[in-house]
């Protein structure tokens, strides 16, 4: 079984984060961005995460001891008003070559661990309603669906998608 580790992202990780995110954008079905993001756009996004929010990378190590970033996750501002402090929007993306290997489960578990360490009170996930993998993870970790917005967002394939909204009390 492959082992994964996670850590807070730094500037050296931005290209890998950009590449993984853009693979998801171009595949469709998991991002409402319709064109790839640039390195500078992803850098600004990573840098916008100030305590208690953060971006994390997920890594694996090969037999030679070389580490490879295979995914990333983020705790982001849910709504930029002080009354929402303690509520975070979760996001996670996995390199296509590593999907279906437990990386998403590992990532969500670590994000929730970080939420609790950072004294968050609620975690939210905003997911395309037909994203079966992410919906299954939300259910597995005990999230409750609290809303569905029909025909809310288009992805890079031009598909109009419903958005589902999930939360977990921490």
Automatic annotation (TrEMBL):
Family annotation (Gene3D superfamilies): 3.40.630.30
Lineage: superkingdom: Bacteria
One term of GO molecular function: acyltransferase activity, transferring groups other than amino-acyl groups
KW Transferase (keyword) present: yes
InterPro entries: Acyl_CoA_acyltransferase, GNAT_dom
KW Acyltransferase (keyword) present: yes
Keyword line: Acyltransferase, Transferase
Domain N-acetyltransferase: from-to ranges: 4-170
The protein's name in its UniProt record: N-acetyl transferase
Species this chain originates from: Bifidobacterium moukalabense DSM 27321
């Amino acid at each position: 079984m492959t082992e994964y580790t996670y850590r807070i992202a730094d500037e050296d990780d931005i290209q890998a984060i950009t590449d993984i995110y853009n693979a998801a954008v171009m595949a469709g079905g998991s991002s409402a961005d319709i064109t790839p993001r640039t390195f500078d756009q992803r850098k600004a996004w990573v840098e916008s995460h100030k305590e208690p929010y953060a971006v994390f990378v997920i890594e694996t190590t090969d037999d030679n001891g070389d580490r490879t970033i295979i995914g990333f996750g983020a705790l982001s501002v849910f709504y930029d008003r002080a009354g929402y402090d303690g509520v975070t929007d979760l996001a996670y993306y996995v390199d296509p070559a590593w999907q279906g290997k437990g990386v998403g489960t590992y990532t969500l578990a670590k994000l929730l661990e970080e939420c609790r360490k950072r004294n968050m009170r609620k975690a939210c996930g905003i997911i395309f309603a037909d994203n079966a993998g992410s919906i299954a993870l939300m259910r597995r970790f005990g999230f409750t669906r609290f809303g569905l917005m029909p025909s809310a967002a288009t992805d890079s394939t031009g598909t109009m998608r419903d958005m589902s909204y999930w939360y977990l009390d921490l």
